[in-house]
Amino acid sequence: RELNMRIGELAGISGVAASTLRFYESNGLLPAPRRAGNGYRDYPEDTLERIGMIRLAQSLGFNLEQIRKVMSSRGSDGSHELIMLGLQGRLEEIEQLQAKLAEQRAGILEMLERMQGSSGTGECVQLANVLSTLHPTRAQGG
Asked: What does the pLDDT look like over 94-121, one tens digit per residue?
């Protein structure tokens, strides 16, 4: 016999708020559960696995549309390839973001160094001057 849970039980076990479960359901991430005679949602036990997959995908930075696409393809012939493509695409996004953050970090470190070097002279370093020496093309509008 399959174990079924009401929304409050599912929320407690999964650690996901009941409102979030309803949101997932209304957005196609969770299939609509059966309704008991009193109208309560009656979720099958395998819903826990699906919630776990949604939360894992979110923790990896996937948006709900991407998650919905993969969840709707589960069990189809192309689902493995779709998941692999999604993971590879997300990895590329992360690598681009890391490169951009590394560039920003280097700029901030250089700015801090310049500002610390000028603080002992009693001169006030204007941010625009510092930025123009760090990134001359940006200061000139390019």
From this structure: 999 999 999 999 988 888 887 777 665 5
Taking the C-alpha atoms of residue 84 and residue 124, their distance in angstroms, rounded to an integer, is 53
Positive/negative CA dihedral, 90, 96, 102, 107:
negative
Q: Is 57 buried (19+), middle (13-18) or exposed (0-12) by CB count in 10 A? A: buried
Measure the N-to-C terminal CA separation of the chain; round to a whole number of Å.
67
d(CA 76, CA 83): 12
Indicate the DSSP class of residue 41.
E
Q: Name the one residue in this structure whose structure tokens are 């589960």.
A: 74
Q: What is the dihedral of CA 96, 102, 105, 106, to 10 degrees?
A: -130
Q: What digits encode the pLDDT tens for the residues 19-55? A: 999 999 999 899 888 887 888 888 998 899 999 999 9
Q: Are 121 and 108 in contact (CB under 8 A)?
A: no
Measuring CA to CA, which residue among 27, 25, 37, 87 is closest to residue 62?
87
**How far is Cα 68 from Cα 79, in angstroms, rounded to an integer?**
12
